[in-house]
Structure formats: C-alpha cells, structure tokens
Amino acid sequence: MDLLPLRYFQAVARHEHISRAAAELRVSQPSLSRTIARLENELGVPLFDRQGRHIRLNRFGAAFLRRVDRALGELDDGRQELSDAAGLINGSVAVAAETMFTVASALVGFRAEYPGVDVRLVQAPAEAMLQRLRRGEVDLCLSSQPVDDPALEVAEVLREEVLLAVPAGHRLASRESVGIEELLGEPFISTDRGHWPRELGERLFAAAGRRPTIVCEGNEPGATAFLIGTGLGIGFVPEMASRYDVAPIAYLRVDAPDCHRTLSFVWRRDAYLSAAARRFREHVTDAIRSNAEDSAGRIS
C-alpha cells in the first residue's frame, strides 16, 4: 500500500473536512477526494460517513486511523533514528508550552549552540498542549501542571514557589507574606481556565470556601506581571518571574499549603525522541535551573 494515501487519510480524518485537509496538504480538493475514494475501494469499506458536503470518520475509519497513526509514527521515528545514528547535527523539534516566556531566553542559547536544528514553538493551555503531544504534532511539552497519564513520560525541571505580586503603593506592598482570607474581593489578574495561574488561584481560594475576583484574564501567563505593574490588579506569579524588572512591583509569600508551580518536560513513551529533541530538553532544563539559582534569594 502506498504511504501517500495514508498520510492524506490522516489529514482528512483529523479535520473531517476535505477542503481544510487539502489546504494543509497543498493538493486540490478533487484530487484528495479521489485518493480517499481509491483507498476506501482498496480496503473494501467506507472510512467516512458522508452527508452532503460534511464528512465524519466512521467506526471503520476510526479503527483504521489507530493503525495508520501507529504505522506512520513508527516509520517517522525510524527515519529520525537513522538520521541520529548517522551523526547528523541538524534536525527539528516541535515544543508546546503554556507560556513562551519560560522558554524564550533558553531558546536563544540553544540556537546559538545548535544552529542547524529547526525549533518550532506552540503555545496552548495544558490539556490542548497534551492533546497535540498525543497526536504526535509536537515532540515535547513544557508543562506547569501535574500530568497523570501512563502513556506519557514526565521529567521534572524545577519546582518553585508561587508569589503574590502587587503594584507599588498597594496596601499589601510592605508586607512579607499574606493569607488567602486577606485577598477576598481584591481584583485579580489571571489567565483563562486551563492555564496554571487560574487553576492554582481557584484551588487556593476554594480551600477558603471562596472564589477569586477576576478582573482581567488572558492566555499568556507571562504577561501577568506586566499587567500588575500597570496597577490593574494583583496576581500570582512564579518566583523566577521576580527577577524581571517589568515595573515597580512588590512580591509577597502566600500563607497557603503547596503554593508552588512544578515545571516538567513531557513526551510520549511509545515515540522515539530524536537527538534534537533530547538536546533541546537538556539545554532548556539546565538554563531554567541556572536562571532559578541566579534569582534565588531575591525574595527572602
């Protein structure tokens, strides 16, 4: 069986839409439709249910897709493994992270050391990020939340305290620590649900039987400190963020159990991790830990 129709089938199954799949594959819609029809004819069963212009993967298609994903994944891994064995210093790595700020500075150093490696970064909330990993769209995830999936390998990078950041002049700015009960009704800058600051904040407030008052939410956790510095509200930031002088901000410890963030690299157990991906993981881990050590003692 030719591999090209299988890759075409993967794309159509993922989108469940001929025109979107054709655009991704850069082929014409009629050509893609004919290829899928020939594949169905060869297999002897329809892979999609068709209702007018809409298509849906049926039970035959779902069963076949599992095998196709596994077979093509093995072939791609084999090709990458041979390239690594041949000692090639070039390659590629796709990485998903909840925030670009954590990876950005480390990426500069990685590119300087490995200029032949192509790095692609994707930002997404935790669950969407892990879904991309499970589908093989990325090689690594840098997660700020616990991952409980036996199909995934997890390596802790850093466990750090999460602090409360308040604008200069705030009533709490001169304090060293604060309890959750003292923050009831305070305007919080946070993220959309699914990102670690929102999940942590809601968990801490739930323990006090309340909910935080969110006045500003977005999808970039790294922007929280900047927004706090403008005076829009207060918010939770990781300790490593305290080394960035984005604005006059005071940082306080939070008197609450387990007010921490754990950064971890995550990858699939059943997938071959290329030399480029392994180098990236090692480099970023070392860079993050080094930066954390440099900023240690800033909050004491």
Can you offer a commentary on this structure?
This protein has 3 domains: 80 residues, Winged helix-like DNA-binding domain superfamily/Winged helix DNA-binding domain (Arc Repressor Mutant, subunit A), CATH 1.10.10; 103 residues, 3-Layer(aba) Sandwich (D-Maltodextrin-Binding Protein, domain 2), CATH 3.40.190.10; 99 residues, 3-Layer(aba) Sandwich (D-Maltodextrin-Binding Protein, domain 2), CATH 3.40.190.10. The protein has 9 helices and 12 strands. Strands 3, 4, 5, 6, 7, 10, 11 and 12 form an 8-stranded mixed sheet that branches. Strands 1-2 form a two-stranded antiparallel sheet. Helix 1 crosses helix 2 and helix 5 crosses helix 9. It is elongated.
Low-confidence stretches: none
Distinct helical segment count = 9
Total individual domains: 3
Report the CATH architecture of the largest domain.
3-Layer(aba) Sandwich
Strand count, sense and barrel status of the largest sheet are: 8 strands, mixed
Alpha carbon gap, first and last residue: 64 Å
Q: Which shape, going by the Cα principal axes? A: elongated
Structural class category: alpha/beta
The run of helices and strands is: HHHEEHEHEHEEEEHEHEEEH
Mean pLDDT: 89
Topology-level CATH name of the largest domain: D-Maltodextrin-Binding Protein, domain 2
Name of the CATH class of the largest domain: Alpha Beta
* Total strands: 12
What proportion strand?
A: 25-35%
DSSP helix fraction: 40-55%
Tell me the Rg in angstroms.
Answer: 23 Å
Tell me the CATH superfamily of the largest domain. Answer: Periplasmic binding protein-like II
